[in-house]
Amino acid sequence: MDHTDAIDAFIEAANTTDAERRADLLARALARDVVFWSPLGRGEGRGSVEDFITQVVQGHPAGPCRLVRTTGVDAPGEWARFGWSYVDAAGRTLLSGVDVAHVTPDGDIDEIVVFAGELA
Fold this sequence. Notes:
Organism: Planomonospora venezuelensis
CATH topology: Nuclear Transport Factor 2, Chain: A
Helix content: 25-40%
Protein name: SnoaL-like domain-containing protein
Strand content: 35-45%
CATH class: Alpha Beta
Oligomer: single chain
Number of helices: 3
CATH architecture: Roll
Distance between the termini: 35 Å
Order of helices and strands: HHEEHEEEE
């Protein structure tokens, strides 16, 4: 799996409500011991990413929302970055940002850092 495939599998996992499908996508995209940095803190393991998805991404008070990759994947070597938006059912952007991911030689994301919002 290349960088773009891993990132797109991660985004698809964030958007699916089927727990089994989400777990499969996360297993394809993320190393078992992935380190996940979000605005809410640091988590380790696929379970921490799954918890973030179900509680924060899918549990948003605005109702059903989805994560959309808004840029190409810039991948110099083992690092990748991409832009994203979090949009509601009407297509309005609620939040946007850039994520940076470290990708192993096997194509698994073993670290991901979420940068949400605009820089001052």
